[in-house]
Design brief:
68 residues, 2 domains, mainly alpha, 3 helices, elongated
């Protein structure tokens, strides 16, 4: 098996190291934009935190949104 990979040049490995992350990055973008109600986990936290500025009584006992 090692002899099989020995024939790949340095540029081949370099190209492979670029193609693989781009491929999976494109797959994740396709998945994330495929449905209307998919949101990143951090996005939910920031939306809740920003809603506290418009209505301070919206989340009265939430430790993450207290303004102290």
């Amino acid at each position: 098996m090692v002899a099989y990979f020995a024939g790949i040049s340095r540029w081949g490995w370099w190209g492979c190291s670029l193609i693989v992350p781009v491929y999976y990055g494109v797959l994740s973008l396709i998945y994330s934009f495929s449905q209307d109600y998919i949101i990143q986990d951090d996005g939910r936290l920031h939306i809740v935190w920003l809603q506290n500025y418009s209505d301070s009584q919206l989340f009265p006992h939430d430790a993450l949104t207290r303004n102290e």
